[in-house]
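stuck on this fold:
=====
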Amino acid sequence: MIGAPISDGSLTLYGSFTSSSSYKPMLYLALAGLPFSFRTVNLKIGVQNTPEYLAINRWGVVPTLCHRGLTILQSNVILDYLARETGHFEGRTEQERWQAREWLSWEADHHRGRASAPLGAVPQDARRGDRRVPPARRGGAVVY
């Protein structure tokens, strides 16, 4: 049994302690000091594939955030939602907010790319000396 959200207004995070994708919103909520309830989805025994969890998350993956009647999927989308809703760790300017979203997209793209590469493979960019750092952070200067 997974358990329902405490109430529509509370933050309820469904995830697994073995999932780095679940860790990101858990860390955000803890650092922001926001109260939330955590519902464990045991991936080892297949709870993510049960009808009860699929009713919450149609893809059967973690994490999932339920808040104010909304169901938010995918860790980086959850982080963006939390920043917008709570104001914690959100950029002060529109440009800073877009840069934060760029980082989330960059992280998702590069994390997925490494996970799907053959074991021992060297990313093409690394062969050219690129350390897989987005342009905005190279050498401390903004580079486009």
Strands lie at 11-15, 36-40, 64-67, 70-73. The first strand starts at residue 11 and ends at 15. Confidence is low (pLDDT under 50) at residues 114-128, 130-144. The longest helix spans residues 94-116.
